[in-house]
Each structure stands twice: as C-alpha cells, then as structure tokens.
Amino acid sequence: METKRMEGQLDCTESAPCVEVEEGDEWVVVRDGCADLRFTGTVVAEESSREWSGPRSLRWDELELYRTRSGTWVCSREYNTLYDDEQDSQEGAVCASTAKVVQFFGYGVLAKQLYAAAGISCTEASA
Length: 127
Description:
Blueprint: E1 3-4, E2 10-14, E3 25-29, E4 37-48, H1 50-53, E5 59-68, E6 73-81, E7 89-95, H2 98-105, H3 109-118, E8 120-124
Antiparallel strand pairs: 1-2, 2-8, 3-4, 4-5, 5-6, 6-7
C-alpha cells in the first residue's frame, strides 16, 4: 500500500487497486488538443453524472480510472452535451501516484465517488 503524508497536505492512500495487472485490454483515451493515450491495462473505476442527473439531463460528465500493466494510472474525463451549439470535450493524463490522480480529477462529488470505487482515500491532514 502506498501512503504519502505531508504536514498540512494531502494524505492519499491506495488500497484495492494495488492488484498486479498481468493481462489487460488495450485502451485508447482520446484527448482534445494533444495526442491520444494508448495503453494496456484494466478499468479500476468509472463514474457518470448522467445516472444521478436524470435521463433528461442535457450535460453530464464521465470519469474513468485505469491501471496500466506497468502500474501507472490513466485518468479520463469526458464532458458530454446534447446542446447543438456546444461540443463534447475529452481530456486524459498519465499519473504516477494517487496524489496526481486527485490533482487531475479534483474534489467534486463525482471524483469522490470515483475514489471510493477505486479504493483511493484522500483527506487533508490537520495538525
């Protein structure tokens, strides 16, 4: 289990996703404005705001977290819209630690649900 502790900083602990990825599927995370990410790994967790926004929602987010065969994390965030004058957007990142995963996704409700599903606990340490 990897734990990072710094006074007054984040305490990020990963538990469940520490399984070794021997096999896996090939994935491509599409990113607007830069090269797409191609890797072999497994989906650790995924969350969508469409489920709790309701079926008539015209905008929603989808978050996905992968673990690669080499042990790094791949983050994917998609902003979806049904409005004609708006475009969907996609972004992604490769992260070496859970702290970087949290830095990418932030602390929104959907991100916290993703962390819970992935077994990642991030809290702010208080002195």
